[in-house]
Specification:
The complex is a heterodimer of chains A (about 220) and B (about 525). Chain A is mainly alpha-helical and about 220 residues long. Chain A contains 7 helices and 1 strand, in the order αααααααβ. In chain A, about 35% of the residues are buried. The longest helix of chain B has 21 residues. Chain B is globular. Classes of the chains: A mainly alpha (about 220), B alpha/beta (about 525). At the A-B interface, helix 1, helix 6, helix 7 and strand 1 of A face strand 3, helix 7, helix 9 and strand 16 of B.
Chain lengths: ~220, ~525
């Protein structure tokens, strides 16, 4: 099933009328039933508070997963691959490097290694070609290192075998997603309004909360 | 603790279990339905959120659903978490097992594509020798298909093509095809490729599920009890007669084990969960083929072209948009020579843009490309038939247990050159059409997704006339245990290129009516 078709199917599903749900009303005490002394009568209703969403997108002061040198290279790469344009924020304005520091830090080890080795390789090449760290390269110099690593990906699961090309492709994908899915992008006044997902889109969608989850100690 | 005895125990609540419950209860038979998961409340359990408010900014929790390509952070909680119910596979043969345990199962979320199988699939052995034939033909299933199509309100265009049997369709009008789709149809027709429209279950209010089209009717009879969060561990049999007499099940939350009794047991747990249950119960396998002949469809290829007149936002009205659906068109005649048997369908869509990863660019240069190609692309994808082979199988892995202590499945499914050649032919065909149309090729790949991706896993408890080579008879009834039925996709012999839901439903309806008649005449 195509992902988009599946999403459409989910989005189209309405609140389901289901006879079985009707049996789920909570038991109620008989009218006039005495409550034990000191007990609380179960609340029949409660106010729904208006809770404004706090702006918590400000980045932390320092990276927690990458080293400072790696993180500086990551920021430089993000600014190169996904700059601000057409009224949209770029990776830096969207806090994408800080978000990637978080998400890569909780990802499987192969993803962590891909990023760390990739950033180290960018720094090594920058040192060799320009005697600078990658973070200090100007656009022309950074392009000289990154452009040879770009490849066409005709099938999304087929990322390049070469580790550096693989890293650049993955980071490019992740910077686009992290930027376009950011609060800053959505509030830039140019949001696409598309249903968001893992892919490139931003926007809003119907989020399934955990459904009757099993709680384990 | 034992619960009260019922006439029939139904394991699973999706399309097949829902159909069994509807048919049996409407004939006066009491049913108990056990479902492994909870009931979702579409109003309470879903909220509209902007993607930036999700915990992982739309990336999803890393590593949570490594085999569910359909998962995103919005829908992550609807799927079975494989950390809770794992499965194993050889390291070089990944399998995408995509499951839903909510009441209604995968019928809540399916794409609603609604096709019949044809005798090209039912009579596979006679047609091409690839896989065995079913013990039934399209004519046997035709009246059941028609009734199912009526319940599900299938919209489709009648064509009169033997590989694409028409059905009992609701009246539908289609908007005029765009000029690009007209061009595709003209070129394809000249090459002997028939172009039609997709066939879709309209259902009610956009939902065509067990929970709105089948279970309400069953509940209205007062003869159906549904127990959610009931994970069936083992089908039990009578020591003296060998007949099935119920099942042990585990409450999902408390892990308390209970037993349900019934005169007849119907399995509808969703193909591989049904087979896992039979294998863990050690029953219904005198043939030795239980777990074998696992199939599903190849979903793949991506061929993209751009229409030059539509670039840079200059497409005139009526040039772009819409799609055409090409039902199987290969190997329909024995005189055709290909390096494959079976076939595939193809859908060609007009009016999309280009994926950014199709350009080795970044930044503003990439954005210029995307802006230029936006709305100008025509793309092709295919669903193809995998050949049913004995060696593609599932078995129990006793070394790994799920969160409720039940041994898990080990799945081994490997493609052959036939599958690869099918996909290549589809990509070649699409590319040639786009070239002939004079469009600029943007991308072409004949890659396809791993087995299981289609969410159409089928077979592993196949039907047949010979008890030595099949698990079920032509009425989905166990050869070994006559009061045991399997009404989900496990019964399939071949998978075809078609989405299987209509066939699952028609078989479940037919099997349930047969079961009811057997119970009425006391044969069961």
């Amino acid at each position: 099933m195509k992902r988009r078709r599946f999403l459409q199917a989910v989005a189209a599903a309405p609140a389901a009328p289901l006879a079985a749900q009707q049996a789920a009303a909570p038991p109620q005490a008989a009218p006039g039933a005495r409550q034990p002394a000191g007990s609380f009568r179960g609340a029949q209703s409660a106010p729904q508070l208006e809770i404004a969403a706090a702006d918590l997108s400000a980045p932390p002061a320092a990276p927690t997963f990458f080293t400072p040198v790696q993180f500086a290279a990551l920021r430089r790469l993000g600014n190169l691959l996904q700059p601000a344009m057409k009224g949209h924020p770029g990776a830096l304005e969207a806090g994408a490097p800080e978000f990637l520091d978080f998400i890569v830090g909780i990802s499987p080890v192969d993803r962590q290694k891909l990023y760390r080795d990739g950033l180290d390789a960018l720094n090594a090449r920058a040192k060799k070609q320009f005697q600078k760290s990658f973070a200090d390269l100007d656009d022309r110099q950074a392009d000289a290192i990154v452009r040879p690593q770009l490849v066409v990906i005709a099938w999304s699961e087929d990322l390049p075998r070469d580790p550096l090309k693989h890293f650049v492709a993955q980071a490019h994908r992740d910077f686009r997603t992290a930027t376009q899915n950011s609060r800053e992008w959505a509030t830039s006044g140019a949001s696409s309004g598309r249903r968001g997902g893992r892919g490139f889109g931003g926007g809003s969608g119907l989020y399934w909360l955990p459904i009757d989850p099993v709680v384990r100690g | 603790m034992a619960v009260k005895p019922y006439d029939v125990l139904i394991v699973g609540s999706g399309h097949s279990g829902g159909m069994a419950a509807k048919i049996l209860t409407e004939k006066g038979i009491s049913c108990l339905m056990l479902n492994a998961g909870p009931q979702a409340d579409f109003a309470r359990d879903r909220v509209t959120k902007p993607v930036y408010e999700l915990p992982y900014r739309g990336f999803g929790e890393p590593g949570r659903h490594p085999h569910i390509y359909q998962a995103n952070e919005f829908n992550a909680n609807q799927w079975v978490d494989e950390r809770e119910v794992p499965y194993t596979y050889p390291a070089d043969l990944p399998y995408n097992w995509v499951r839903v345990r909510l009441l209604g199962g995968r019928s809540l979320f399916w794409a609603r594509e609604s096709f019949r199988l044809s005798d090209y699939e039912f009579k596979a052995a006679e047609i091409d020798g690839g896989g065995d034939s079913w013990p039934i033909s399209h004519a046997d299933l035709d009246p059941y298909y028609s009734r199912v199509e009526g319940i599900f309100r299938v919209a489709g265009r009648k064509e009169g093509w033997p590989q694409f049997p028409d059905g009992n369709f609701v009246d539908t009008s289609y908007p005029p095809d765009s000029q690009t789709i007209q061009k595709v149809i003209e070129l394809a027709t000249a090459r002997g490729i028939g172009c039609s429209k997709g066939r879709v279950s309209m259902g009610e209010n956009g939902l065509a599920s067990s929970i709105n089209l089948l279970l309400p009717d069953a509940l209205a009879t007062g003869r159906l009890d549904i127990v959610p969060n009931a994970i069936v561990r083992e089908i039990t049999t009578d020591k003296n007669t060998g007949l099935a007499n119920g099942a042990y099940f585990i409450d999902r939350h408390s892990r308390r084990e209970m037993h349900a009794q019934a005169r007849v047991v119907i399995l509808a747990a969703g193909c591989l969960e049904t087979t896992r249950l039979l294998l863990n119960s050690g029953i219904a396998n005198s043939s030795g083929v239980l777990g074998h002949y696992l199939v599903d469809q190849i979903y793949g290829i991506n061929v993209v072209a751009s229409v030059p007149e539509a670039r840079d936002g200059k497409a005139p009205q009526g040039l772009m948009g819409g799609n055409t659906f090409m039902p199987r068109f290969r190997t329909l005649k024995t005189t055709e020579k290909h390096n494959f048997i079976k076939g595939y369908c193809m859908r060609i869509s007009s009016g999309g843009g280009a994926n950014p990863e199709l350009f080795a660019e970044y930044g503003e240069e990439l954005q210029k490309k995307l802006d230029s190609y936006a709305g100008s692309c025509v793309s092709a994808g295919m669903y193809g038939e995998r050949v049913a082979r004995f060696e593609n199988h599932v078995r129990i892995n006793h070394d790994v247990k799920d969160a409720w202590g039940i041994p898990v499945l080990h799945i081994e499914a490997k493609d052959s050159d036939n599958e690869r050649n099918l996909a290549k032919d589809a990509a070649d065909t699409a590319e040639e059409l786009f070239h002939a149309a004079g469009w600029e090729m943007v991308s072409r790949t004949e890659r396809y997704n791993p087995p299981g991706y289609s969410i159409h896993e089928l077979g592993t408890a196949r039907m047949g006339d010979n008890p030595k080579t099949s698990v079920l008879n032509k009425f989905n009834q166990s050869h070994d245990i006559k009061n045991l039925f399997v009404v989900d996709g496990a019964a399939f012999v071949t998978c075809g290129w078609q989405n299987p839901t209509m066939t699952i439903l028609a078989l479940a309806m037919r099997a349930s009516e047969y079961c009811a008649e057997q119970m009425r005449t006391a044969a069961l």
